[in-house]
Automatic annotation (TrEMBL):
This is sn-glycerol-3-phosphate transport system permease protein UgpE. It comes from the Bacteria. It is a multi-pass membrane protein. The chain crosses the membrane at residues 12-33, 75-97, 109-130, 136-158, 187-208, 241-261. It comes from Rhizobium jaguaris. Coiled coil: none annotated. It holds the Pfam family BPD_transp_1.
């Protein structure tokens, strides 16, 4: 009886997983299918097979969106944001985990508020401030905005990792003559590296896909990111949907490949961050 129930439960579990997998993969499969069609075939039958296969869509998308330049811009913005967020947030999280702060509840509320508050609330004053500083169309300036935007989440996540590290390790290192910086860099950082990797992955994906801030602060053609270049492919009166689908696939492929490659460490990092709050 138990064996039958176990098999039934396993069958239902696989069925549910198959349904979720289909829901997750169907849009990507449809995107791939339509990226190989002429625009007319997409309008006629978006679910049909391409006849013939149109590889030229990828060439046109790469050239028209100037991905050779805009991809570099996106990589620079994402890379700079990752470095700034991980370096500053790890230091902040370590201090918050090891120092007793009487107003911790207020500080937690502040972090939650800044994490959940929509960027539209302070977009206009931020724009005028950056205009006064001459930081409009400055890629590094956009990375600074992303750093401020994503740091509260990173601090809260990394703090849980530092809290899970036994204080005896720090005390032993101090007894051996290590300085505070050596304790942090040589002892703590290697232990919480899964959390830092998780933060880097999440922040990198968010900054790569972000649109509102990028399109507001980057207005010159040479400074736009890949996401903005993809948006500009759609014309006001006509659009080559095959080319647009190919451009979307080009943007999605690095993100999907990175997540597939890092999924094990990502899951481990998220699970490790939930050990202690």
């Amino acid at each position: 009886m138990r064996l039958v129930e176990s098999r039934a439960t396993l069958t239902i579990s696989y069925l549910v997983l198959a349904i979720f997998a289909f829901i997750a993969l169907f849009p990507i499969a449809l995107l791939l299918l339509n990226s190989l069609k002429p625009a007319a075939q997409i309008v006629q039958n978006p679910l049909g097979l391409p006849q013939p296969i149109r590889w030229q869509n990828f060439v046109n998308a790469w050239n028209h969106a100037k991905f050779s330049k805009t991809f570099v811009n996106s990589l620079f913005v994402s890379g700079t944001t990752i470095v700034l967020v991980c370096s500053t947030s790890s230091l902040t999280a370590y201090v918050l985990a090891r120092k007793k702060i009487k107003s911790w509840k207020i500080f937690t509320f502040y972090l939650l508020a800044t994490t959940t508050a929509p960027i539209q609330l302070y977009l206009f004053p931020l724009y005028f401030g950056f205009a006064k500083l001459g930081l409009i169309n400055n890629i590094f300036g956009v990375a600074l905005i992303y750093t401020a935007l994503f740091s509260p989440f990173a601090v809260m996540l990394l703090r849980t990792y530092f809290l899970a590290v036994p204080k005896e390790l720090e005390e032993a290192a101090i007894v051996d003559g290590a300085t505070s910086w050596q304790v942090f860099s040589k002892v703590m950082l290697p232990i919480v590296s899964p959390g830092i990797l998780t933060v880097a992955l999440i922040i990198g994906l968010n900054s790569w896909n972000e649109f509102l801030i990028a399109t507001t602060f980057l207005q010159k053609a040479d400074n736009v990111t890949a996401v903005i270049a993809f948006y500009l492919l759609s014309g006001q009166y006509s659009s080559d949907w095959g080319e647009i689908m190919a451009a979307a696939l080009i943007i999605v492929i690095p993100v999907v490949a990175l997540f597939v490659f890092m999924q094990k460490r990502f899951i481990e990092g998220m699970a490790g961050g939930s050990v202690k709050g």
